[in-house]
Amino acid sequence: MDQAHNTNMDIEKDSTTFDYSKRSQWLRAAVLGANDGLVSTASLMMGVGAVKHDVKAMLLSGFAGMVAGACSMAIGEFVSVYSQYDIEVAQMERENVEIEKEKLPSPLQASCASALAFSAGAIVPLLAAWFVKEYKVRIIAVVVAVTMALVVFGWLGAALGKAPVLRSSARVLLGGWLAMAVTFGLTKLIGLHYE
Fold this sequence. Notes:
Layout: H1 2-16, H2 24-51, H3 55-94, H4 107-130, H5 135-161, H6 165-193
Helix pairs in contact: 2-3, 2-4, 2-5, 2-6, 3-4, 4-5, 5-6
Function: Vacuolar Fe(2+) uptake transporter.
Protein name: Vacuolar iron transporter
Main location: membrane
């Protein structure tokens, strides 16, 4: 009776336990892509905004950064996942195992997901600056929008991976602020030198 009870408890435990490490690959790619799009586009816009107060210059630099970054992420992910695909196929052939396509990684799917995640992050600072004509208000709007998005991305990554939310959000937020501050400061310094 005890053995049957223990077996039932093991089955219940297995059905309620989820291996969150299995999520790590797609979760890492999605969060990294969105966070990278957010931080790199916002930092680029802040850097341009440090020397050019014109809204058009900020928006064009942000848009160019979004397109270039999304293309770069897509190509990088495609090449990376295709390499993994080739390795797994070669291993299956060495072991004389039937190649099951649905179990292999999809380079095209990973590439599209990466580009979309990057673009989703990059759109935040662009939308924040889009309708604001006054320079100082525009800079503040970008920083506030990016701050809120960084907290959400940090929280989302932690929540989906069942990791500590506060620590993850703080790490993502401080990293984003640092990137924007360094880009703004260095560009301002170089801009002053060439005035």
